[in-house]
């Protein structure tokens, strides 16, 4: 019975040992499954990657090479069947046995390169890469354990035999059997203790390996730089998290060529290279270093690529270079001082502006530039502002090394450190002497007339506003005087603009000499001057100064070798008697000045309520004119122009205006206002287009027997391209150029401008006729008829109305017609109202007759009827 108990106890102990051993092996397999591929090669455990279908060994680590006695390269050319000496039937039996026992490992016999056979336990786990199945196998050499197990089983068999013998002799040798049982138990306890110690060591090794694996894995993936392990063909085997995220945004990176992401040179090992990489989301610059992985036979088996993103580093480097370039090349002086306000650095522009070299100022205070123009309180406010806001900008007068003072515009900024304490001051400044001079020059140009040096209109208006405020506060009057030089235009036309400028300059000096120091003398433009007389309370004082000024202007002017006589017409208005608004006062003075001209010139007139009414009426006229074109208030009338043989009929297009507000308004009243306001440009275009549109119909019916004449303002020639306008209208209306004549005034020809001459020549080149209107009443000059490409000449009605009774008019008209005939010019006599006038003109062979004798100006429909009846009547004769 005792022997049975001992036998049962021994089996239980052995079973516990086996179970413990099984747990240890299983734990070992779990340990290997946690390892990462990058650690595969260097791991101490024997590891193989096998293709299950063919048994080909795809990968083997250094431990496998050391165990089997083959190199890694040799192993990776072999099949697992060349190592495992079990037949397929034995392998299947072993797998069935493991399955029945609930084991997750197999026990095989493997042959080493030396021919030695080892018993091994194999833990295999399937995995898939790119849809391809592989077995990851971890092999442990359990030969010694198997030998120990055999020894134990042998000992157990011997023990059982001994127990059987002892059982047969138990009666005789009970004492010996008990002693033997005790010895066996002791041996088994020792063996159990040994196995227990081995199990504890294996468990500690497992925990240590798991810890090391987790640590290495964490380190591998926590590296911010890109870490990629590739084979010798540069295909990625594994990569850390940073590389996967940066290069493929989380997509698998394995088996991709690392150089597909960059233009770096391949195979350069041990050298740091700056290359551009094409990441998943952006292109970045990286500093790449390649390290070769060498096996124990000194053969290269792969590469480790360490890539550091240096995009920000390069940008910082570029910004640093840029800042350095700006610092050294900028035209602004730069001064950098520390928190104690000691100069640390200056640039080249600083030296150019101040004259100080860098060695002259390093370590010194910026106060070395102090000019003494600013009080200490100025700099206290400056530094208080810097400490509060971190920036100050303004004008400072500084002193150069040579002692000269100059104005500078300074920008000072404070750079704070991480603790918000002042680290450095950075001051940028430049010399604004030239700018100050330009500002002064611009101020003079803005406020003073460049020819005479007098205040201009802008400055005069500003001073008027100031003086009105002062006069109101002091309860005093203020006189505003406008002066226009009489006959100045004739001086310009006869002696030229240079002489006119000299006259204006002398007139300005005379006016300035007549006035008090508190008075303002201004030139508003052209030959218009203005006086501002503050602090005057009596009209007698104003009249005295006005008389003195006009007397000075009426004295002769010496222009070159000639004595020139002009005079002035002055209009005067009083603040606050005549108004309290500047615009009203200026308008009042202007109205009074025109009244002085109407009174015979060389006099002054005070503003009256009648002038105000005239100004109001003009204002109403101006307002109505602004709306007349858009309201379709204008109409074109046509007055016949009949040739002396009555075979050719033309007409003059005349503008008429019926205002909804003012009724019928005379052209003599509104045309000058249109020219002053610039409205003559759109209105003139409209008249030309309407006249040509109507004339195209009559030219279509009567051909060369018909023409139309349209008046053109000198303002249009000055502000417009008349040639382009006429061509556009002729093309639009389909009117022949030969059927159109443009009437121009002598005022335009007197301008003596090359631009005017070019425009007139261009118009004649198109075939359009040119007629000079009102010849003999303005600034007529025979040179006009020679210089300008005219085709017609119109005799003003002033010379026609007293024909044939006025002998002087008869002589004048006869001379004009004779002269025009010799110059190949056609003559039109306008204002013909009697048969006596017609007979006289026909006797002189005047080419065309225009006047009420034939017809007054007619609307288009009535003129159409008139011309048809007239031509029909002539054809019937």
Count of separate DSSP helical elements: 29
Distance between the termini: 176 Å
Strand count, sense and barrel status of the largest sheet are: 8 strands, mixed, barrel
Using the CA coordinates, give the radius of gyration. Answer: 59 Å
Tell me what portion of residues adopts beta-strand conformation.
15-25%
Low-confidence stretches: 1-36
Determine the structural class based on helices, strands and strand pairing.
Answer: alpha+beta
Q: Give the overall shape, derived from the CA principal axes.
A: elongated
Give the neighbour order of strands across the main sheet: 23-24-26-27-28-29-30-31
Q: Helix amount, in percent? A: 40-55%
Task: Describe, in plain words, how this protein is organized in 3D.
With 877 residues, the protein is an alpha+beta fold. Helix content is 48%, strand content 24%. It is built from 29 helices and 32 strands. The strands form 6 sheets. The protein has an 8-stranded mixed β-barrel, surrounded by 5 helices. Strand 21 (567-575), helix 17 (582-598) and strand 22 form a beta-alpha-beta unit. Helix 15 (497-514) runs antiparallel to helix 16 (539-554) and helix 17 (582-598) packs across helix 18 (609-628).
Features:
877 residues; alpha+beta; eight-stranded mixed barrel; five-stranded antiparallel β-sheet; 48% helix; 24% strand; PAS; PAS-like_dom_sf; EAL domain-containing protein; transmembrane; PAS-assoc_C
Can you give me a brief rundown of this structure?
The chain contains 29 helices and 32 strands. The chain is an alpha+beta fold and 877 residues long.
């Amino acid at each position: 019975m005792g022997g049975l108990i001992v036998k049962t106890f021994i089996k239980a102990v052995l079973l516990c040992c086996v179970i413990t051993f099984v747990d240890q092996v299983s734990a070992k397999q779990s340990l290997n499954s946690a390892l990462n591929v990058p650690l595969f090669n260097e791991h101490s455990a024997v590891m193989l990657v096998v293709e299950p279908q063919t048994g080909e060994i795809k990968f083997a680590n250094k431990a496998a090479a050391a165990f089997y006695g083959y190199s890694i390269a040799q192993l990776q050319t072999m099949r697992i069947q060349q190592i495992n000496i079990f037949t397929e039937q034995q392998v299947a039996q072993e797998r069935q046995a493991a399955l029945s026992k609930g084991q997750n490992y197999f026990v095989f016999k493997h042959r080493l390169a030396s021919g030695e056979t080892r018993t091994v336990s194999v833990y295999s786990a399937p995995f898939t890469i790119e849809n391809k199945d592989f077995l990851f196998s971890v092999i442990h050499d359990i030969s010694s354990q198997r030998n120990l197990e055999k020894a134990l089983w042998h000992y157990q068999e011997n023990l059982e035999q001994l127990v059987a013998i002892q059982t047969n002799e138990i009666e005789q040798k009970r004492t010996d059997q008990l002693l033997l049982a005790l010895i066996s138990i002791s041996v088994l306890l020792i063996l159990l203790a040994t196995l227990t110690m081995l199990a504890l060591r294996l468990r500690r090794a497992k925990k240590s390996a798991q810890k090391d694996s987790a640590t290495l894995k964490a380190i591998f993936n926590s590296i911010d730089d890109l870490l990629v392990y590739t084979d010798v063909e540069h295909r990625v085997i594994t990569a850390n998290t940073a590389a996967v995220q940066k290069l493929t945004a989380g997509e698998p990176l394995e088996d991709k060529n690392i150089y597909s992401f960059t233009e770096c040179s391949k195979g350069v090992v041990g050298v740091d290279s700056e290359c551009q990489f094409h990441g998943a989301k952006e292109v970045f610059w990286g500093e790449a270093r390649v390290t070769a992985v060498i096996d124990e036979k000194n053969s290269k088996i792969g590469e480790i690529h360490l890539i550091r993103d240096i995009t920000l580093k390069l940008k910082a480097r570029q910004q640093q270079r840029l800042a350095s370039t700006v610092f050294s090349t900028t035209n602004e002086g730069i001064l950098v001082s520390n928190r104690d306000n000691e100069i640390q650095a200056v640039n080249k522009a600083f030296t150019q502006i101040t004259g100080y070299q860098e060695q002259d100022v390093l370590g010194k205070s910026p106060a070395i530039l102090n000019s003494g123009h600013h009080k200490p309180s100025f700099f206290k406010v400056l530094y208080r502002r810097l400490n509060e806001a971190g920036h100050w900008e303004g004008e400072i007068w500084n002193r150069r090394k040579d002692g000269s003072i100059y104005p500078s515009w300074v920008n000072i900024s404070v750079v704070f450190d991480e603790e918000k304490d002042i680290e450095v001051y950075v001051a940028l400044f430049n010399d604004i002497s030239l700018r100050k001079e330009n500002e002064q020059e611009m101020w003079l140009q803005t406020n003073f007339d460049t020819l005479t040096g007098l205040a201009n209109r802008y400055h005069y208006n500003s001073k008027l506003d100031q003086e009105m405020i002062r006069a109101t506060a002091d309860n005093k009057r203020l006189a505003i005087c406008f002066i226009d030089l009489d006959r100045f235009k004739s001086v310009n036309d006869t002696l030229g603009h240079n002489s006119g400028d000299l006259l204006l300059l002398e007139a300005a000096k005379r006016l300035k000499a007549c006035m008090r120091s508190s008075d303002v003398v201004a030139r508003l433009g052209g030959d218009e001057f203005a006086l501002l007389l503050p602090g005057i309370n009596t009209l007698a004082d104003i009249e005295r100064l006005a008389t003195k000024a006009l007397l000075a202007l009426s004295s002769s002017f010496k222009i070159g070798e000639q004595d020139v006589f002009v005079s002035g017409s002055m209009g005067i208005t009083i603040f606050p008697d005549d108004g309290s608004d500047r615009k009203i006062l200026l308008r009042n003075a202007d109205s009074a000045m025109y009244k002085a001209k109407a009174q015979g010139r060389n006099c002054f007139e005070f503003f009256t309520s009648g002038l105000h009414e005239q100004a109001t009426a003009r204002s109403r006229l101006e307002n109505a004119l602004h709306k007349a074109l858009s309201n379709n208030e204008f109409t074109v009338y046509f007055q016949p122009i009949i040739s002396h043989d009555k075979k050719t009929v033309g007409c003059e297009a005349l503008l008429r205006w019926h205002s909804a507000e003012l009724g019928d308004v005379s052209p003599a009243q509104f045309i000058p206002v249109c020219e002053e306001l610039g409205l003559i440009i759109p209105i003139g275009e409209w008249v030309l287009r309407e006249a040509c549109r109507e004339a195209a119909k009559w030219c279509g019916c009567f051909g060369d027997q018909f023409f139309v004449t349209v008046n053109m303002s000198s303002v249009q020639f000055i502000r417009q391209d008349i040639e382009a306008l006429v061509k556009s209208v002729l093309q639009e209306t389909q009117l022949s150029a030969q059927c159109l004549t443009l009437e121009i005034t002598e005022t335009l020809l007197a301008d003596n401008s090359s631009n005017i001459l070019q425009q007139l020549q261009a118009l004649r080149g198109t075939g359009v006729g040119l007629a000079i209107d009102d010849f003999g009443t303005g600034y007529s000059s025979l040179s006009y008829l020679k210089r300008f490409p005219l085709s017609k000449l119109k005799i003003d009605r002033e010379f026609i109305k007293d024909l044939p009774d006025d002998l002087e008019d008869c002589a004048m008209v006869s001379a004009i017609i004779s002269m025009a005939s010799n110059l190949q010019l056609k003559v039109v006599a306008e204002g013909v109202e009697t048969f006596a006038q017609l007979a006289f003109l026909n006797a002189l062979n005047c080419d065309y007759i225009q006047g009420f004798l034939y017809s007054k100006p007619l609307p288009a429909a009535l003129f159409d009827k008139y011309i048809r009846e007239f031509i029909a009547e002539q054809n019937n004769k």
